[in-house]
């Protein structure tokens, strides 16, 4: 992650992402711009972030290391959204890792000096509550989908959410755990996708060669929920 000094680009991202509307006061002067390459970290696990990030462009994933050493995927973020808002509200919260899926651009406000002001900003807190409620609803929908739909639909959605430049490279163990299925079942469906011409096996993962079909499978789950909004932003 590196800071970029480009006022024109920063202003463009502010305008396009609705950043100013998240606050009741003008914070643009104190807002910084960061570029995060694909695979880099926006927040490192266990390290309190120095900034409240606003993902203005790109996608990222949230995961945690469990006591047994296994890495567990938790959620996915798609611009625009805040990152680090839980640590802002609760200084004792143990930060989880947030890693970019593709190149990301973040607007960032220094957390320590602005914490008192933000926690007394009714506009910001209202927007934060709405955003957190959307995240919670999306997690509920995801849980319901895991219990109600075949793995072919859920895996198609997972591949689309985690792919970068039409390349899917997630670890099978993490993918299986996230979707609540056995490692063997996951490999069976991936092999099915390969036989059906949706994926092409490569040394470093899989190339997506039929994205429309993957998208159709994913959207069978429910074309009107929050997941669909996220998926459209990924596939369009």
From TrEMBL:
<dbReference type="InterPro" id="IPR014710">
    <property type="entry name" value="RmlC-like_jellyroll"/>
</dbReference>
<feature type="domain" description="Cyclic nucleotide-binding">
    <location>
        <begin position="35"/>
        <end position="97"/>
    </location>
</feature>
<dbReference type="InterPro" id="IPR018490">
    <property type="entry name" value="cNMP-bd_dom_sf"/>
</dbReference>
<dbReference type="Pfam" id="PF00027">
    <property type="entry name" value="cNMP_binding"/>
</dbReference>
<protein>
    <submittedName>
        <fullName>Regulatory protein YeiL</fullName>
    </submittedName>
</protein>
<dbReference type="InterPro" id="IPR000595">
    <property type="entry name" value="cNMP-bd_dom"/>
</dbReference>
């Amino acid at each position: 992650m590196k800071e970029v000094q480009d006022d024109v680009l920063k202003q463009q991202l502010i305008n396009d992402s609705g950043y100013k509307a998240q606050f009741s006061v003008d914070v643009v002067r104190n807002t910084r711009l960061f570029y995060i390459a694909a695979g880099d970290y926006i927040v490192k696990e266990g390290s309190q972030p120095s900034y409240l990030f606003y993902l203005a462009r790109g996608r990222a994933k949230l995961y945690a290391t469990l006591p047994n050493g296994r890495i567990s995927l938790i959620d996915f973020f798609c611009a625009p959204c805040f990152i680090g808002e839980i640590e802002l509200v609760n200084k004792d919260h143990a930060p989880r890792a947030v890693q970019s899926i593709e190149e990301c651009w973040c607007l960032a406000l220094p957390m320590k000096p602005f914490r008192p002001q933000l926690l007394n900003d009714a506009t910001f807190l209202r927007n934060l509550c709405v955003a957190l409620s959307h995240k919670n609803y999306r997690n509920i929908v995801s849980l319901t989908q895991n219990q109600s739909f075949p793995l072919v639909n859920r895996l198609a959605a997972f591949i689309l959410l985690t792919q970068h430049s039409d390349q899917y490279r997630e670890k099978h163990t993490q993918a299986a755990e996230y979707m609540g299925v056995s490692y063997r079942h996951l490999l069976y469906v991936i092999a099915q996708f390969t036989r059906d011409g949706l994926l092409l096996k490569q040394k470093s993962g899989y190339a997506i060669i039929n994205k429309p079909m993957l998208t159709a499978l994913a959207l069978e789950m429910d074309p009107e929920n929050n997941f669909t909004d996220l998926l459209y932003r990924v596939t369009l």
